[in-house]
Amino acid sequence: MVPPAHLHGGRVRRLPSVVTILVTLTAASGCGGSGDGANDARSDEAAIREVAADFVVAANARDWKTVCSLFTPDAVRQAESLGVSCEESFERRNPTTEKVTRFTVSNVQVRGDRATAILEGENTVEGLTSTTQAFEKVDGEWKMGLAGSGDPSP
């Protein structure tokens, strides 16, 4: 996982290796509420950024078990809908060794237990890609949601 020291202004500095799966991205631990809405929002945003960074590192390492652990149960069920495990599903979708060389998280919008963020990455095969990723808090932890579910509305 990426230590917080690697996060700088929402950017992860050039990572040694990271696969492109910017269709659906990561989860981070939710932080305990302080009762201060502004601090809670900053904590949620930081947790979402950390989840996205964790996803990129795990995907680059082709650690599909960790990748799958970063998604909501609904997203995992969707990945398994073709009759294979979540891990096998990611392996089949990402058979090459492309690496993400630059990655950013921007425009994090948190509304209760749902959020969206723009994830942008540059990889060794496709170049620059961008997607709006949904996140959902599950049992106090931020997880990446289903592809195409980028609306944080309750």
Describe the structure in your own words.
With 154 residues, this protein is α+β, with helices and mostly antiparallel strands. The chain is built from 4 helices and 7 strands, in the order βββααααββββ. The protein has a 7-stranded antiparallel beta sheet with strand order 1-2-4-5-6-7-3. A hairpin with a 2-residue loop joins strand 6 and strand 7 (141-144). Helix 3 (73-79) packs across helix 4 (86-93). The chain starts with 6 loop residues before the first strand and ends in a 10-residue tail after the last strand. Residues 1-34 have low confidence and may be disordered.
Oligomeric state: single chain
Form type = globular
Order of helices and strands: EEEHHHHEEEE
Structural class: alpha+beta
Low-confidence stretches: 1-34
Helical content stands at: 25-40%
- Largest beta sheet: strand ordering: 1-2-4-5-6-7-3
Main sheet specs? 7 strands, antiparallel
Beta-strand percentage range: 25-35%
Rg over CA atoms? 14 Å
The number of helical segments is 4
* Count of β-strands: 7
| Mean model confidence by pLDDT | 76
Q: Give the termini distance in whole angstroms.
A: 30 Å
